[in-house]
Structure formats: structure tokens, C-alpha cells
TrEMBL record, chains A, B:
Its EC number is 2.10.1.1. It comes from Flavobacterium endoglycinae. This is Molybdopterin molybdenumtransferase. Transmembrane segments: none annotated. Pathway: Cofactor biosynthesis; molybdopterin biosynthesis. Keywords: Magnesium, Metal-binding, Molybdenum, Molybdenum cofactor biosynthesis, Transferase.
Length: 390, 390
């Protein structure tokens, strides 16, 4: 049995980045860049007006004749005398002869001429060519997360394809003779199988859209055979159930017989203690406890960071939140506790119903309060650190 | 022109919940419940062992004969004498004659009998029927957000279908003769169109997967005609570009001629001032500025909360984050400023490059620092409130 901090460390150390792939920028949200991107163009590609107004050459004059128009999309390089200006619109090309744009609000205009009421500074309202980025400058370093803004920036430079780390293919293997699919009739002694659909939803929050679910009977032979197939095809395997100490738990044995290397088994925590973590080549195997709330806890603590790490993300843990406790919290068992909690702008409340079988509490929680194994109690009003799970 | 706080209020007041639909629990992640859900079963449906161990009737005896086995999934209601116990596994049915389970770690066992070394309390390790939830008790109130845990809880009760608020159908209308699709050749005076792909990515972060993009020429007739069609089919319409004061901006006119009610036009903010917000029946229309960074700012401040509100979410704004400023911030213009910023565990840095055309800053920011119009300066070290945008 190892401590939680060590277990987290081992998971991180073994979560190797996925191979790279080319992907359309359109579909790249949530992926991580695997290459440094240089700008193929100057942005803006020409001197651009930042305002609707009039372009002219800055001087002591306040009156100018209007000799043309430049709309966004135009590229007529109108020749201007020092006494002349053109009507110009936001985003439009500024002719080479003009150096300044005056906002239309600061001008008295008739059809043929303007009188500038408030003279702007020289060069005002003209965006220099390449102001935002020059050709061949670095757009993004490798390992940048692709956000909506990053997609917009790549697109505005005309970039349509980038190289990113692939998302891991994930399989969920469900064991347990007691399990019945929701929607079917619940016979005596059976319960509905809910972990696979719950874990699939959890994976979706990290952008893993499709997860294959396999079901096997609760015996060594079936489990071993299924694992043999699955280990060939997937980058991350979640096994639900069958990992505690009972005689009827064959999962660990089936893993070892498939040459999966044990990296740890059992963590000094509550809930979620009976967890196995192993690897075979670069594939990671998490055998999670069958209890739904334990399973989901370990999903958030171990699996989600591993998924993010394999996707190339550098920030694989959610930013912690600090809040004041609304009640005392005791830890009498010397294990790390993960307590379902709900925080608001200032406080955090540890919820009733922390049993490892209970999902209802989890469904109303927005965070886990982590009480390390060496902390015996927190007191009401104390600031504590939370892991958000929303 | 109105203040930001008023604009936010108007958007909220007009963002009416979508109609409801039945949906498979499997696909319900991120949706909001439109009905109260009652449990169709007791959970657990029978008295369940919480441990691997032995079930017996609690007494002063420490020695028991083993007369059978109950595995998870079994339902053999073995008769037990006071001197008898059965081998039992986590999740398995506890026979009516037993009231207590002793963990196997606390027992010395041979094939036929056990000696309990550490006697548990009476009723220990037995989960009562209906402990988590009883039949007909409330599972979730209406308006609950469907998280992975909620999906797990619904599934474990055998629920496969729920009633939720629909997601809004969103269209993006792009105007601007200066725009060229990324991947095409960039002619002089033109720029690449990036707002639609950026806004689509932003909508994806709220679970709006498919967004139709329409493109029209920069004139009243085309814009009016396109809007007529789009207004019939969509719940939210984003218009990109064409809303500032220039003569060539036809969007507002096209909206009004299509009987869109103006709710506000122009907000006292920087960037993002030239924005129009209106409605026609329950459809919301946001005409966003053409500048990419302005467009994305207003997307986060106004559009995303409206989308969430229409989906039935009660928390439509991200939880604010409070951090210490690494530099002074001045607001000399009497407008609300939205400054691209990056925060870590303790501090926040306002980034260089706040121009409304610049997306590169946005791509490395993880938050917006909101400086209200009536605040003239924040000083280095001061705690300020941020809107996270990750």
C-alpha cells in the first residue's frame, strides 16, 4: 500500500505523451500542439485602419478634400496630395500616402471635404503591417493548448492544419456477475451497472468522445481473454470492479498473466483504496474499485490527469480552490480522505453521505476536499484546499 | 450606450429556457433536468455486504461454522443457525438470518469454520436496503445539471431516459467583403476570416457541437435576406462584423427591418463597445464586433451566459477567481475594461497587447480582469476579481 502523493507521482511518471497527428484547425479544440508554429504572413498583412474615419497625411492643416474611399477589402492605393484625404473604414487598407486616420466623430464633413475638429496624433488609428505578428515569427510554441482564441489566431493567419498529440483511445472493461444493464429487469441480488456510463461521461469532459465498453463474466478465464484483446488496441484501459481482496476477484491475476507490469496496488486513501495501476508498453491500466463513488473519486484523482498528460497538457490537475470550512473535519484513520464537498464564493461545506457506494452526494458536490493522511483534523473556519470537479 | 452591468442584466432577462425533450441518460452530460426524478427502486435493492468477509448473527460467540457462500449477484437466502456463518463478498446479498458482516482480515478461517479475532459491532458492514435512496424518494430536483456523477446515479437506479431542456440551435452569420476563408490565397486588402471558427470552438466548450455558419456580402439586401431565413430556424444568432458606425455597416438596419427588437446597442466597455443585442420572439441576436478579440470578449461576457441560461443552467457565469495584481492597472477612459490576464495560484498578470484586433494575447490568457467603469486604478498587490476563460 502506498500513499496518495506517491501514487499520483507514479501515474504522472508513466503517462507518456501520445504520438502526433495532423489535424484540421477546425477540429483542434482541446488538443495540444506538438510543433512550433511560425506565421506564414504579416498580420495585419497591410497597414489597416483601426477606425471608421478619414485617412490623410498628418500636418498642421485641419481641412482636407475628400478624393476617394477605402472600404474593408479594397486595395486601391490612392495617390494623395498633402491637402487630400480619403474616407476609410475599420479594417480597410491605408494608402501609402497617408499616415494617420481621424475618427469620423472628430470631424465635420460635407460631401467634398472635412474639417478636423480634434486633431489626432500622427500615426493614430493606423495599425502597422505585422503589428500583431510578423511573417516567420513564432505563433505558438509546441505544447500550447488549443483554445477558442488559439483557433481564431491560427485561422486569422490562414493556418488550416496543425500537428497535435493524439487523444488516447480508452476502453472500459466491466466485470461483475451482479450487474444488469439499466433498462433491463432487476433480478434479486443484482444491481444496475452504472460505472461504465459514468466513466464514459467523465472521459467526455476531457474531450474523449468515444469509449468502447467491454463486459466479461467474473472469472479469470474470461477476464484474461478479454484483456489480451483490449491491451493490443487501447492506450488507456479502465477496469471497473473485481479488484478488492475477495476470492472472486480475478482482475489482478488476469492482468499479471497478460504481462501487465504492476506499478502499484492499493492506496492509503478512503474511499478508493483497492486500486491497481499498471502498464504494458505505453498503455496504462487502471483497475478501479467497483463502488461507484470510489470509482469516480479515483477517476478524478488518477485517471483524468493521466488522460490529460497523454494528450500533452502541461496543466493536468485542476487549479486548486481555497475556501473556509463550515464545520470541523476529523481524520481518525491515518488515510488520505477525499470528501465530497460543495463550495461557494467564500465557504466550503463537506456534504453528508461520504460512503463509497453513494453517488447521490457526488452528484451535488462540486469539489473534493483532500485531507492528507497525516492531518488529524481541520477546524471550522480554517482555509482548506479543494479540487474542483465541475 | 449602456453600462456593462445593465447589458448583462438585459441579456439574462431575455434568455428564456428552451423547450424540453426526452433524452437518453447516456447522452445527457451537460444538459439540465426539466423534471423532478423519483427513484423507481430502493438502492441498494437488498441488504448488501460492504466488505469481503463472513455474514452471521451478532452474539457473544466468536466461533462459527461456515455453511455456504454469497457472491455478488447471488440471491440464495441461506438459513443460518446462531452458530453458523457464510462466506460473503462485497456487494453480495446478506441472508435474512444474518445481521452483521466481519471483514475477512479480522478472522482466522479454515475450510469449515471461522474464529473472529476482532468482533465488529452489531450490524457492521451491512448496507441496509434503501440506505442510499428509497423507492419514490427524490433523486434530483428539476434544474439539476447532469454531471458524470449524476449520470452514474441515474444509471444505478435503472433510469435510462430523462426530460431535459434542449440545447439552443445556434447560427453564425459572417459579413465582410474583406474576408477570405483560411486555406485560400490572401489577395491584397483582404484578411482571413477567423471569427466563425473561433466562435464555433467557443460554443463547443458549452456543449453546442454543431453550429451552422452563413456568409453574406456586406450590403443591406443580402444581409436582410439571409437574416429572414436564419431567424426562422435558430434560437441564438451570432452576427460577426458590420455593426460599427461606418456607412458600410448594414447589419443593424437589416435586423430592424426583420422586426428584431433592439434591446441594446453599444456598451460602455473596451474592447467590444459596438455590440447590438436584440430578440425576435424567443430568439436572441448578438451582433458582435468584427475585431477578433472584441468578438471573443463579448462572447465570454454575454453569449456564453445566454447559451447556458437557455439550456436551463442556474450558474451561468463562471465562478470568479480572486488574485493579487503583479502591476498597477489604470482606467483613464471611464469605460469597463476587459483585460486579458493570466493567473497562477496566487497572482494575476495583465498581459501585453490588449488591442481589440489582437488574438495572440487572448490565446495565452486564462482569464479576463474586469475593471469597472467607475474604478480609476488598481494598484500592484491589490486583490482583484477575475473571470476565468479556460
Amino acid at each position: 500500500m502506498i500513499e496518495v502523493s506517491k501514487a499520483i507521482e507514479i501515474v504522472e511518471a508513466n503517462s507518456i505523451k501520445m504520438p502526433v497527428q495532423k489535424i484540421s484547425v477546425k477540429k483542434a479544440l482541446g488538443y495540444v500542439l506538438a510543433e512550433k508554429i511560425l506565421s506564414p504572413i504579416d498580420m495585419p498583412p497591410f497597414r489597416q485602419s483601426a477606425m471608421d474615419g478619414y485617412a490623410f497625411t498628418h500636418s498642421i492643416r485641419h481641412q482636407y478634400d475628400i478624393v476617394g474611399t477605402s472600404q474593408a477589402g479594397d486595395h486601391s492605393n490612392i495617390k494623395l496630395k498633402p491637402t487630400e484625404a480619403i474616407r476609410i473604414y475599420t479594417g480597410a487598407f491605408v494608402p501609402d500616402d497617408a499616415d494617420t486616420v481621424v475618427m469620423q466623430e472628430n470631424v465635420m464633413a460635407n460631401e467634398d471635404s472635412i474639417l478636423i475638429a480634434t486633431m489626432p496624433e500622427k500615426l493614430a488609428n493606423v495599425r502597422p503591417k505585422g503589428e500583431q505578428i510578423a511573417k516567420d515569427d513564432v505563433v505558438f510554441e509546441a505544447n500550447t493548448l488549443i483554445t477558442p482564441a488559439a483557433i481564431g489566431f491560427l485561422a486569422c493567419l490562414g493556418i488550416t492544419e496543425i500537428e497535435v498529440y493524439k487523444k488516447p483511445k480508452v476502453a472500459i472493461l466491466v466485470t461483475g456477475n451482479e450487474l444488469v444493464a439499466p433498462g433491463k429487469k432487476l433480478k434479486k441480488g443484482k444491481i444496475f451497472e452504472s460505472n461504465s456510463i459514468m466513466l464514459q461521461a467523465g472521459l467526455k469532459t476531457a474531450g474523449i468522445e468515444k469509449t468502447k465498453v467491454y463486459r466479461v463474466k467474473d472469472n479469470l478465464k474470461s477476464t484474461k481473454k478479454a484483456l489480451k484483446e483490449i491491451l493490443k488496441k487501447y492506450d488507456i484501459i479502465l477496469i471497473s470492479g473485481g479488484i478488492s481482496v475477495g476470492d472472486y476477484d480475478f482482475v489482478k491475476e488476469a492482468l499479471l498473466q497478460n504481462d501487465v507490469k504492476e506499478l502499484f496496488y492499493k492506496v492509503n486513501q478512503k474511499p478508493g483504496k483497492p486500486m491497481f495501476f499498471g502498464s504494458k508498453k505505453e498503455t496504462l491500466i487502471f483497475a478501479l474499485p467497483g463502488n461507484p463513488a470510489s470509482s469516480l473519486t479515483n477517476f478524478y484523482i488518477y485517471v483524468l490527469p493521466a488522460v490529460k498528460s497523454r494528450m500533452g497538457l502541461s496543466e493536468i490537475h485542476k487549479t486548486k480552490v481555497i475556501r473556509k470550512l463550515t464545520s470541523d473535519v476529523k481524520n481518525t484513520i491515518g488515510k488520505t480522505l477525499f470528501l465530497k464537498a460543495k463550495y461557494d464564493e467564500t465557504n466550503v461545506t463537506v456534504l453528508d453521505g461520504q460512503s463509497s457506494a453513494m453517488l447521490n452526494t457526488f452528484a451535488v458536490a462540486n469539489s473534493l476536499l483532500i485531507v492528507p493522511e497525516n492531518i488529524e483534523n481541520y477546524v471550522k473556519g480554517q482555509s482548506v484546499t479543494l479540487l474542483p470537479i465541475d
